[in-house]
Amino acid sequence: MSDARTNLSRRDFLGAMTSAALLGMASAGPTSLAAAPLASDRRVRIGVVGGNFGTQWQWHLDPNCIVEAVSDLRPDRRQYLQQVYKCEKPYESLEKLVLDPKVEAVAVFTGAPDHARHVLECFKQGKHVISAVPACLTLEDARKMKEAKERTGLTYMMAETSYYRWPTILARQLWKEKRFGRFLYSEVEYYHNMIGAERDGLSFDQGKRTWRYGYPPMLYPTHSTGFHVGVTGERLTGVSCLAWGDDDPALKDNDYQSPWCNQSALFKTSGANICRCNVFWRVHSDGERAPSCPSRCAWPRVTGTPTVSSRTSSSPPWSRTARRPWTCTRPWR
């Protein structure tokens, strides 16, 4: 489908965005990825919003993409976005960037509670959108996003990294070939110790609380569920969830009124499969992984390396932590 105002097809957009996402994940595989032949010389003109996480992507390296404009509310982050993407067109806000007629698509890497509002504003101005996870925090916002996407015919893409990990890509192909049999039980997990806590560096910025302060684990499920949904394409249709919290001050007073830091859910899927999902903020572990039990064949086991508690030379100056590339240490069970 195409939008008359941008003359950008869904295929063009998805092709360029998928290429950029795969470039971003290339270091996660055990070997180098060969350059894929270009299906088109069409170049998507994208605006990047969010000068922290938004600087960690490779839009400017994709041959089918041009970073047309960048935006952040903070001048230092706008400058860093310009530096990373070699872009000479900064805007003070997303609301100003989406008025630029040359911008065809927008990468929304702002705070999680703002994603839905920003995606809807982009749709309103006729822009395709890719956003960081989660897409939204409420069912009402999910409904509004779905309706806007269907009404405008524009493309929305959620940049869930678990979908693009090389074991997930392999498992997706094996599932498509019916190599796993008829039944799948998965144990999908995301462990990030102390995130959202009072003492977590990401919970504060310039002395003020960020959206991560006291953030509920199951409002950030897709690093886990992406390992199942990203393979089978199923919907999660039923759930039972248990939760646990400690005495951290962030759980006593936060914007989400959430007393929980660890949550474990058991999902029923649309294909009658079972998915057990953990998202823990207080745990002596770290990473994203997905040991699973199909009725036959084998399953790639994804594990992560520990978080490094210091900045790297390539990190933005306000970044408190940096991550090493994810690896698959046990490719087959």
Structural summary, described in words:
With 333 residues, this protein is of the alpha/beta class. The protein has helices spanning 10-25, 75-85, 94-97, 115-124, 139-152, 161-164, 166-176, 222-232, and strands at residues 2-3, 8-9, 44-49, 65-71, 90-91, 105-108, 128-131, 156-158, 184-192, 204-205, 208-209, 236-244, 262-269, 274-280, 286-289, 292-294, 301-303, 307-308, 322-323, 327-330. Helix 4 (115-124) runs parallel beside helix 5 and helix 7 (166-176) runs parallel beside helix 8. Residues 1-6, 22-31, 305-313 and 320-333 have low confidence and may be disordered.
Outline of the structure:
With 333 residues, the protein is α/β, with parallel strands linked by helices. Helix content is 24%, strand content 26%.
Beta-strand portion reads 25-35%
Number of helices: 8
If you average the pLDDT, what whole number results?
Answer: 84
Helix proportion: 10-25%
CATH superfamily of the largest domain: Dihydrodipicolinate Reductase, domain 2
* Domain module count: 2
Poorly predicted ranges (pLDDT <50, ≥5 residues)?
1-6, 22-31, 305-313, 320-333
Task: Give the end-to-end Cα distance, rounded to a whole number of Å.
Answer: 42 Å
The strands making up the biggest β-sheet line up spatially as 5-4-3-6-7-8
Q: How can the largest sheet be summarized?
A: 6 strands, parallel
CATH architecture group name of the largest domain:
2-Layer Sandwich
- Please tell me how large the radius of gyration is: 20 Å
